[in-house]
Amino acid sequence: MQKILIIINDAPYGTEKAYNALRMAMTLQKEHGETVEVKIFLLADAVFCGLPSQNTPGGYYNIERMLKSVIQKGAEVKSCGGCSEARGIDKLPLIEGVKISNMKEFALWTVECNKVLSF
Fold first, then answer.
1. Radius of gyration (Cα) for the chain, nearest Å?
2. Longest dimension (CA), the chain
3. Of 4, 20, 22, 33, which shows the fewest CB atoms inside 10 Å?
């Protein structure tokens, strides 16, 4: 099984980097789900992607729904604890399935994965 790490660096809204990263994750799972394991690491402002209760206008993409979808299909999602602490959100609840992590685990995932994509 091929392991793919997707790193998201930007906030959930404002640019489309998180959106495109999650579109890639969803497509990998849909087209290659039997042979690909997806891991997602939320870094820098992307830690905001892991917060619940995102309310977007109708017809607009919703990062929370997209994250829940990839998690439901088996993706592991980790959020940088240091980045969360720096932004004052380290004590807030996260979307179910998103776990706080650290640079040590991020480095381990980077070494373990066959491919690393950064958004």
1. 13
2. 40
3. 33
